[in-house]
Amino acid sequence: MINVAIMGFGTVGQGVADVIAMNCELIEKRIGQPVHLKYILDIHDFPNSPFSDKIVHDFETIVHDPEIDVIAETIGGAGIAYEYTKRALTAKKHVVTSNKELVATKGRELLEIAADKNVNYLFEAAVGGGIPVLRPMFQCLAGNRIEEVFGILNGTTNYILSRMVHGGVAFDAALKEAQSMGYAEKDPTADVEGHDACRKICILADLAFGCEILPECVPTTGISHLNLKDVEIGEKAGWHVKLLGRAVRGADGKVYAYVAPHLVEEHYPIASVEDVFNGIMVRGNAVGEVMFYGPGAGKLPTASAVVGDMMDAAQHKNRRRNIGWAAYDQAVIGEPEALSMRCYFRVKDRLDRIEEVFPKSEILYDEDEIAFITSEMPLSELNEREKLLQVCAKLCILN
Ligand code: HSE
């Protein structure tokens, strides 16, 4: 029998308990022993939960219990979750998590502790919710040099955009819906301002490129300043607005990462990723482009990934050896301004002025204001030329 504990009984923690209970027989069959949920750590009592008898309030109960093998950390944040994870790994417990903030900021250190103690620190649920993407990327695509990884990494903002575009729902109402369905972070600013997507692109880039990309080094723009007018102009011209995280290996070998709303051509696969779904593209030098698609947030999809990691940890009592990345090195990280791309602008200027500043642009809208897509050039040059116009809105174009 394998004894497990859950730390944090919020949406994901409750989902983990549900999935273990719902699928106990097949889980036992697959790993060759029953999984026994022994403790749930939370500050609340949950008297109406079917798992109320498992609730404990003291972390010491779990960390000092020699019977506990695997702990699921679903507390979130990089505060107490960091302390508990460090102590659990040091006490030679396997830890699995859905906590993207902790993995993005402290993952390297925690993986080092896990390596030192010969236990696993696994975090498939931290990116893409229920989508298997991290393990396929560092395992099944291990024979590739990864050139680029990008995609829709936040379910809440994708849900909001879908509801606004297809349901005619206002931003605030769409956000409330996403919160009520358990998609949003405790503080939804992290979703709306792009910080959650930023943490996820950092984790993907850490694994894809083998070097630490810290969230504070990744330029991040969310959807709070997005104007519906640009969404409508884009839609009419065959482009969908998507919040994308992107990390790419430049010709100079450096890694460039950023998060921003993009216009995506409607025939491109991730353009049709709607609602809470995520779509993640990985480009390898042997495989070409691979897309991972599925539910990016929510109780049971996220719990599905956490429980998968718990089972993996239970089966690999010795640490999996192929997870990790090097310490942050400024020389390896490039400024996204050096990247070449096209951009969408909505401006107050006249057509002849636009043609002067951005020759060969594609005009999408020409009424009270003009909206256009530039030709491709380095972002630094786009930023310089943009100063010569009266810009109302700007969006990246996915090349
Ligand atoms: N708030 C996150 C999202 C949860 O909406 O994608 C899943 O990480």
Please sum up the structure shown:
With 399 residues, the protein is of the alpha/beta class. 36% of the residues lie in helices and 24% in strands.
Structural description of this entry:
It is a single chain. The protein has 399 residues and is of the alpha/beta class. It is built from 14 helices and 17 strands. The strands form 3 sheets. A 9-stranded mixed sheet has the order 11-10-7-8-9-17-13-15-14. A 6-stranded parallel sheet has the order 3-2-1-4-5-6, sandwiched between helices. It has a two-stranded antiparallel ribbon with strand order 12-16. The N and C termini lie far apart (51 Å). The mean pLDDT is 96. L-homoserine binds next to helix 7.
What's the helix and strand layout?
Blueprint: E1 2-7, H1 11-22, H2 24-31, E2 35-41, E3 55-56, H3 59-63, E4 68-73, H4 80-90, E5 94-97, H5 100-117, E6 121-122, H6 134-140, E7 146-152, H7 155-167, H8 171-180, H9 189-192, H10 195-209, H11 228-236, E8 239-249, E9 255-265, E10 277-284, E11 288-295, H12 299-315, E12 340-341, E13 343-347, H13 351-357, E14 362-366, E15 370-373, E16 377-378, H14 379-386, E17 391-397
Helix pairs in contact: 1-12, 4-5, 5-10, 7-8
